[in-house]
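In response to reviewer comment 3 from the previous cycle, which asked for concrete evidence that the modeling workflow produces usable outputs, we include below a single protein chain processed end to end. The sequence was submitted unchanged, and the resulting structure tokens are shown without manual editing.
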Amino acid sequence: MNSMLANAGSLVYAARYPKVQKAVAVLALVLLSAWLGYQVARDYFTAVELMVAAAIVAVSIRWPRQALLMAVPATLLPIDLVGTSGQLLIVAALTIGWLVEMLAGRGHVYPWEHGLLAGFGAWLVLAYFVDGVHIESQLSAEHDLATLLAGLWLCGMAISIGPTRGQLLAVGALSAAAVSVAAILDPAHSGVGRIALLGLNSNYVGAALALGAVASLAALIHNRRNPIWIATGVACVIGIRASGSRGAIVMLLAGVAVLGLLGRPRWIQLTVVAVAATVVIALPGFTDEALTLLIGPRTAADFAASNIDRTNAGLTALRYAVANPVFGVGYGQFAALAARDPLLAEYVATHNDYLRLAAESGFPAALLLIAVVGLALRTGRPLRRTETAMVVTYAVSLLFGNFLSNLSVSAPFWLWLGLSLHVSAERSAATRETAREVSIRSQGAAMRTVRFPAE
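The workflow returned the following structure tokens.
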């Protein structure tokens, strides 16, 4: 029934917006060509980056849906092989397959979903150029903004053509497990201290592994007979502990909670939430001890110092957001301003992407991100608990880090967000079409039952 509704929705949009879809595809092709020409002219890509992009183009032309999944392992390649420019090139290469689907009428433009995403991206660009102070290195800030926009573009492509849930789970779980094993076996780690790999610090590695652990559990739920998902999940959990990231632990717990509670009776959900809240609020000492036990490489003193830094950074970000509520101080500028701020005097990130957006791009940017995530979660039924769990897991991570501007960590999120919005849009379109057909049939039946007086 659900597949029938989805097909009906696709047919409705394909019939209703063919010119819009082709116009969007042509515009995207022009922009892509201009960007690639400019970058190639600057000799911006390495040979490895060009070879990876060529392989992705070859796959995306034949299997565009499956090619989208390549964004996950490709953006996890070591930073010395594929840097920021290479990650942007990977997204550009994936666009080729999306263009093929759009021009063939198999990809669709959804007004609400794509419109909200486009509005978010447009506001980020506007805020950057309108009111940015640009103290930070221009190249660094532009890289952060370009990476975030590339993530939004990746999400938009996923909304259009909808990657397959099972394949996305498998790719996410296997990629994260491979990263975990590589990080643990890295000679630089040697079992001492927090793991770091691929040019990412420990918190970023932990966030990537938390997504992989939740994906492993979801894959195991869907296919209980396949032990590989137990192995990938265990590898990710071991890596999370070695990363020493509290945020990764919270991400993992949030994802597991959604997978376990969504679709359960309301009283079970409320009971679990109440017990967890009671433990955290009434027994803070127990919570600290549990974290120390779960996260091996860190101590209570380390946690306390980190809490102070994060709190000061968060309060400073909130102060900047209140002082510049519309356009913020400019994307990528917070750390440089914080170093010059007499109340903080430290080069530090916000450690919270919602606060970062509010401080650097204004409150509208933070609200637009929340609206996009909310739209993806608006129909979080048991049937969609996998998508809901993955989106919630990453949405929680944004409370503890600045991951949106790093495709190595954010690529899976953009794909899951796009898939969730795709499913939601298809169902909405199918529901409206079904309601329209029922209305037409009802009117026809009413006309047939009208009796006219005899002459």
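The CA atoms of residues 60 and 97 lie 4 Å apart. We consider this sufficient to address the reviewer's concern, and the full set will be provided in the supplementary archive.
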